[in-house]
Amino acid sequence: MGVKLEVFRMTLYLTFPVAMFWISNQANWFEDYVVQRKRELWPPEKEGQRQELEEFKERIRKQREEKLLRAARQGS
């Protein structure tokens, strides 16, 4: 019983990773499942969102620069 059990376990240990690799590399499955799921989780950006984000980053950058300028003037 011991040898048969070990052969079964070794077959299972080798078959499972190979099967998972084969399944995950199927182009149809990848397109249907993974890409669709990614689009559900992270929908494409709208035009206005990108512009608002850039404006926000610019405001924050200007605030930091002004703060650094004030600190530099006070330290001089």
UniProtKB/TrEMBL annotation:
GO terms for biological process: mitochondrial respiratory chain complex IV assembly. It comes from the Eukaryota. GO terms for molecular function: unfolded protein binding. It is found in: Membrane; Mitochondrion membrane. GO terms for cellular component: mitochondrial inner membrane. Belongs to the PET100 family. This is PET100 cytochrome c oxidase chaperone. The gene is PET100.
